[in-house]
Amino acid sequence: MSQRMQQGQPMIILGDDSQRVQDKDAQQYNISAARAVADSVRSTLGPKGMDKMLVTSTGDVTITNDGVTILQEMDIDNPTAEMIVEVAETQEDEAGDGTTTAVAIAGELLKNAEDLLDQEIHPTAIIKGFHLASERAREEVDNIAEPVDPDDEDLIQKVAETSMTGKGAELEKEVLADLVVRAVQQITVDADDGSHVVDLQNLNIETQTGRSASDSELLAGGVIDKDPVSDEMPTEIDDASTLLLNEAIEIEEADVDTQVSIESPDQLQEFLDQEEEQLKAKVDQIVESGADVVFCQKGIDDMAQHYLAKEGVLAIRRAKKSDISFLKNVLGGSVVTDIDALSAADLGAGSISRDEEGELFYVEGNGDEVHGTTLLLRGSTDHVVDELERGISDAIDVVSTTISDGRVLAGGGAPEVEIASRLRDYADSVEGREQLAVEAFADSLELVPRVLAENAGLDSIDLLVDLRSEHESGDTHAGLNAITGEIGDTFDAGVVEPAHAKEQAISSAAEAANLVMKIDDIISAGDLSTDKEDDDGPGGAGGMGGMGGMGGMGGAM
Q1: Which of 51, 131, 325, 467 has the most Cβ atoms closer than 10 angstroms to its Cβ?
Q2: Where are the domains of the chain?
Q3: Are 42 and 494 in contact (CB under 8 A)?
Q4: Is the pTM of this model over 0.90?
């Protein structure tokens, strides 16, 4: 071996199926993959953003412009691209909105980083510069943020409307924003330290097709989209004692190996009578506990249904686990898993009413210690309702964040242009090549107003020049009103965003870009894609600069 090495022969340490990409090739591969993800969602940004139609392998169709939904539904099998998807998921978890912004900024950071690499600037210097810029940008977000009082319904509603603009909820955004604000206020409590805590566990979203979105309503309590198990049961009960049951009211099935020997019709009848008695005993236990209503997560035998109806007990079967958990908050009591251990102390209290037209049960709790609010969303079709629910969920998260954080920003690209200007001033104080990275970070933030303009059909260059001029003159709220196509004070125009979401987007984008930049060697045991089913596809060695399995979604881009 030593002789071979002396002759310049390489030492083979990787298997035949392994792939390795090094240095600039690795950086280009990673940057190309990350930018491809970012470019796929850019056109959805802003009130004039377009929708994507995503079709799964099973034929399920999703129409949306929600960034995290698009990225989750896309068939991505590239490891670097999946890192960028994580940016969107983190943004969604932490802030509830701004996923497209975070991903787009991450892509632009990597694009500008690639230019710096071409200038022979070391990745370490770029990473340090991006980190310094990110920290400073977060500070500047706090400096330009406006405080918001949780009781300022007008301003908080503007935050909700801004979040909905450009999404499925936009057409009825005023009505829906009002519902969102009232819903969040009902589940907000004051903590001992004076802060405001929003308990989203006490808010449930239900959907119904066949009616206009303007018919959506906010209900105290819960909604159960189920029918009673028998037409003979009551459907309107005031001051009802309610049982939440996670046990089937059925005869327990015998083991597979169990054998029953019946030699006469009388034995068969006796056997059936015993089963009937068991069911009646279960029903008697429910009745003796004082329960007027039974919400059962599992099945109810036909004979048990008969006995319950005879006793005047309303029973609903096959209720969703999530509905049972929510009803526990609404009605109080506990979820019973064993009828034999049932007692009156396990029961909740509330009022039950029936909406025959909508085929819904309205459930409202009694007493001060019960909680729970339901937002009933209505839409004309399933696709409309699904997109409406996504928009409303984002709006709820945004309003919750705003109330908890207490800070807002002017929208329309105003904060990005202002922060970029301040970062360029800050760059003058940064020594070394990191200064160029800070300036590149500032340029990357200005992607937001540029894309907003592009998606609105406006000249992005002229608009950015005008925005810079306005901010240099001291107007920190100057942004693009994409609806009118004009530059103005977006805060006064009602385009308002939560400051926390902006901070999180900047932080997530910078960290993702730095993570990608730090990789200079990719060693794979096989195909570089994460989908091993198609080794010859675009995720293989021939597609190093591509997106692997994203090629299948090309028609949706």
Answers
A1: 467
A2: 21-147+410-556, 153-221+375-405, 222-254+263-371
A3: no
A4: no
The CATH number of domain 21-147+410-556, selected from 1.10.10.10, 1.10.560.10, 3.90.79.10, 3.90.1170.20: 1.10.560.10
Q: Is 255 exposed, middle or buried (0-12, 13-18, 19+ CB in 10 A)?
A: exposed
The percentage of residues in the chain with a pLDDT greater than 90, rounded to a whole number, is 36
Given CATH 3.40.640.10, say whether it is the number of domain 153-221+375-405: no
> Active-site residue 394, yes or no?
yes
Q: Is 405 among the residues known to form the active site? A: no
- Tell me, yes or no, if 536 is annotated catalytic: no
* 100: annotated active-site residue: yes
Q: Please provide the CATH number assigned to the domain covering 222-254+263-371.
A: 3.50.7.10
The residue to which tokens 């005031």 are assigned: 238
In the structure, what pLDDT confidence band is assigned to residue 26 with cuts at 50, 70 and 90? Answer: confident
Contacts 24+ apart (CB under 8 A), 56-61: 61/383
Most confident of 189-203, 249-263, 492-506: 492-506
Bridge partners of residue 524, in order along the sequence: 19
Options 394, 397, 405, 527, the catalytic residue: 394
Whether the Cβ atoms of residue 361 and residue 393 lie closer than 8 Å to each other: no
Q: 51, 66, 292, 527: which is the annotated catalytic residue?
A: 66
Do 153-221+375-405 and 222-254+263-371 agree at the fold level?
no
Which of 99, 165, 373, 401 is the catalytic position?
99
Predicted confidence (pLDDT) per residue in 521-554, tens digit: 666 655 555 454 444 443 433 344 444 444 444 3
Is it the case that residue 263 has pLDDT exceeding 70?
no
